[in-house]
């Protein structure tokens, strides 16, 4: 389809009697491999055009051969051979391909004796057949409505003085009961103080790894 478009463009240009440059057909032919530039990036010298390649260059330019044991990847969908399509199954394969006929017996597989039908269990068997009972004092789990239901007595209850005292937040007095009222203020003499050599030595970070 691309070739037909290029031919249509060339025919249209020639029909308009417009002189076509010598490089134009080649440019249209290799347009997909270019960057859309009409003029060459640089000029090639005549010596480079007429240069003869060496055997070493030809050896390096040849593609690397594949490994002798290389096998191309197999297709995702296996190809069925003609012999497999025309093969005839054996009698054993046809026998295995048939669905097995299972006999469904709706009647009892064995008869129950009359003595077993009229058997009366003993007290021990009746005791073992009863389900395990709950322990004494067991109470079933409450439903969500019963779990979060507030009783009328709790709604009408009145708090004591101790509960009211504990429910009040504790008010803390800041800087009122301290021995010094200016405990958190920095004095002017402390601001102008100069550190001693020992303090400067202790303030330096510890240099490790030496």
Automatic annotation (TrEMBL):
Keyword Repeat attached: yes
Top-level taxon of the source organism: Eukaryota
Listed InterPro entries: SPMAP2-like, THEG
UniProtKB keywords: Repeat
SMART domains linked to this entry: THEG
Pfam families: THEG (PF14912)
Protein name: Uncharacterized protein
Species of origin: Paramuricea clavata
